[in-house]
Design a protein that fits this description.
CATH topology: Four Helix Bundle (Hemerythrin (Met), subunit A)
Oligomer: single chain
Strand content: under 5%
Distance between the termini: 22 Å
CATH class: Mainly Alpha
CATH architecture: Up-down Bundle
Structural class: mainly alpha
Order of helices and strands: HHHHH
Length: 148
């Protein structure tokens, strides 16, 4: 699969989300290009990073009363389930399963960004227009990671 790079076209205009998404895209690119010994060691760290970022995003959705929280969270859960399955196979030496998972994530991310995360960004902007989330999301961006 063609390596995915961050571009301004992927930005949603919510700094914390954009920073997390950029870090995620860069992490996927590094992992996809990593030699086998580093790939096997880094794959579980990617999964842990995704878990953390998804949890933070879901907490934000809950805080703003995002109406699509359940559907968005279910998508996160399905992707994480697949990643846990792939991580187990990578730990058993099946690096091809991990590389397939990275390829899938690169495709999934673009779709998720343009649908689920775009809707969330709009909801954040609407909520921020009321003045209640703006300071936390722009002054304290979440740590690098998918932040989906």
């Amino acid at each position: 699969m063609e390596e995915q790079a961050w571009s301004s076209e992927l930005a949603l205009g919510v700094p914390a989300m954009d920073n997390a998404h950029k870090a995620f895209v860069e992490e996927l690119s590094r992992l996809a290009a990593a030699p086998d010994d580093r790939f096997a060691a880094a794959f579980p760290a990617l999964v842990a990073s995704m878990e953390r970022d998804f949890r933070e995003e879901e907490e934000l959705m809950e805080a703003i009363g995002f109406p699509a929280l359940q559907a968005h969270g279910e998508q996160h859960a399905r992707v994480l389930g697949g990643m846990h399955h792939a991580a187990a196979r990578v730990m058993e030496g099946d690096l091809a399963a991990g590389h397939s998972a990275i390829d899938f994530l690169q495709q999934w991310f673009r779709l998720h960004l343009s649908t689920m995360d775009l809707a969330l960004a709009v909801a954040i902007d609407l909520h921020d227009a009321e003045g209640s989330v703006a300071a936390t999301r722009t002054d304290s961006p979440s740590p690098p990671g998918p932040g989906r």
